[in-house]
Amino acid sequence: ALTTEVPAVWSDFIASITRSWDKLYPFSGEADYEPDPAATCAGIAAARGVEPAEVAYDQMMSENGRGLLYYPLFNYSNHNLDHLWELHQHPHTRMGLADAGAHCGTIADGGMPTFMLQFWARDRARGDQMPIEWLVHRQTRQTAEMYGLRDRGLLAPGLRADVNVIDLDGLAVELPHLVADLPTGAKRYVQRAEGYGATVCRGAVTVLDDAVHRRDSRTTDPGSPDRPSLSQVG
């Protein structure tokens, strides 16, 4: 059986992830980044009376073999995000750094700015939320000042006209999915966001109604065949 096979290449790190059934969550439907412990492979298996590996394989074989498992590598030992809420209150905490670009096939952090607004300002049900205006400030002016980019992050005369027009009720991040648009056809995870009426960068519209707005005035859905491949950029 597949569940008894041993990979030719194995490491303690890989084993710690692939056998941590109490930390692996079937990831389907809406993207839930604060799931209940009962939703782990171990929790579901206990409720069904089956082995956790069976739950994991069933999930991975769903969606025509594209089913995902979510493994929060850090900051989820208590199965909630309460401590992250506390961390965000600290005046020295900043957002926006990640190494997803070095791990394109395992991490998808591109949805973080949208998630911050959707989850912390609107959807969180298992603990305290955060004010929308504070979250916007944290991701705009506060971040810009940290990097010395004082010409942006505010709506003020003389500064860059960088604006997001959002529908807070419509904000959402979809589940990550693989696209093969890197050089040599390599794959990476992308995560589509919804709820953006427009994105204006230095006065130019770059996103219109959730679609990339091209210079030739066409709009292109981020996942469409017309979307330029990263291997062609530059």
Outline the structure in words.
Strand 5 (about 175-180) and strand 6 (about 190) form a beta hairpin. The protein folds into two domains: about 1-80, no CATH class; about 80-234, no CATH class. The chain is of the alpha+beta class and about 230 residues long. It has helices spanning about 10-20, 40-50, 50-65, 80-90, 110-125, 130-140, 140-145; strands spanning about 25, 70, 165, 170-175, 175-180, 190, 195, 195-200, 205-210, 210-215, 220. About 25% of the residues lie in helices and about 15% in strands. The chain has a five-stranded antiparallel sheet with strand order 3-8-9-10-11, with no helix packed on it. A two-stranded antiparallel ribbon has the order 1-2. A two-stranded antiparallel ribbon has the order 4-7.
Topology:
Elements: H1 12-18, E1 25-27, H2 41-48, H3 52-65, E2 68-70, H4 82-88, H5 112-123, H6 132-139, H7 141-146, E3 163-166, E4 172-173, E5 177-179, E6 188-190, E7 193-194, E8 196-201, E9 204-208, E10 211-213, E11 219-220
Antiparallel strand pairs: 1-2, 3-8, 4-7, 5-6, 8-9, 9-10, 10-11
Helix pairs in contact: 2-3, 5-6
- Rounded to the nearest angstrom, the radius of gyration is 20 Å
CA(first)-CA(last) distance = 47 Å
Strand content: 15-25%
Number of helices: 7
* Strand line-up of the largest beta sheet: 3-8-9-10-11
